[in-house]
Amino acid sequence: MTRSLSAIRFAIVASALSLTVLSGCMSAPATEPSVSASSTPEASASAAPEAPSSPALADLVLSSEGLGPMLFGVTPETDPALRIVQFDPVACTDAVTGFEMGIVAGDEFAGAWLVDPFYELPPTPESNGQPFGISVDAAAGNLLQRVDLYTSDIPTDGGVRIGDDRADVLAGHPSAALVPSGLTDIYVETGTNGILQIEVASRATPEQDTYWASVSVPDGQVLYIHAVETSIGVFSVAGSGNIAGGCNFG
Fold first, then answer.
1. What are phi and psi of 135, to 5 degrees?
2. CATH code assigned at 151
3. How many CB atoms lie within 10 A of CB 224?
4. Which of 176, 177, 217, 214 is nearest to 200 (CA)?
């Protein structure tokens, strides 16, 4: 954004009008008032344009079209000043992970798309500090295919966050279609290039109730939020281990 500030200031000083009266004579004609500018306009001052930058974590929003400026069907930005994610070519090698998978630099599964360090959160027992994860179509030039949210810091474009309840989903996405799944109800909103999917716990059946009761999850709690490129379709994440981001060991 370019900001411009122009300041022009004028001061007008009028000279006093004096009259001289001569005894026994006609009054002398009044002198013309003189006007002088006491100052000249100041030069316009223009602030230097701000350099483009990536949005703050608090400004990211997930929709059916992507995450913030990162859109489905488009290769993620790689400019360090603008990017949201980065590709680490050795993130999944044995030397980095400590696993004995036989993966070395240059192997097919050696690299991974990770969030830019700017967005990393402090690790917790439940999280590795990645607020979201992505998947790309490597064969098509790393076009964005999927985004999964792992934190309540990022909402949907309807204002729904992980940990909210069914009422929040219905209020934020009133036109979303309901797709029942094995353990959850999935609220689906289809856009131009992608599909937003919000999973809430369902305890409608005895099997569902037993499952969620065992982990103390109330009925209707928002558990997973993800969005995908349209061709991938609708699917459940609950109980599957099917998540985006990190290492793919095949």
1. -130, 145
2. 2.60.460
3. 21
4. 217
Residue 249 within a domain:
no
Q: Is residue 149 part of a domain?
A: yes
Residue 43 placed within a domain: no
Number of domains in the chain: 1
Distances (CA, A) of 54 to 144, 159, 160: 17, 21, 22
Range of the domain at 108: 57-232
pLDDT tens per residue across span 34-43: 545 444 555 4
Top-confidence range, 29-38, 100-109, 172-181, 238-247? 172-181
> 14 in a domain, yes or no?
no
32 band by pLDDT with thresholds 50, 70 and 90:
low
Q: What is the pLDDT of residues 222-246, one digit of tens each?
A: 999 999 999 999 999 998 888 998 8
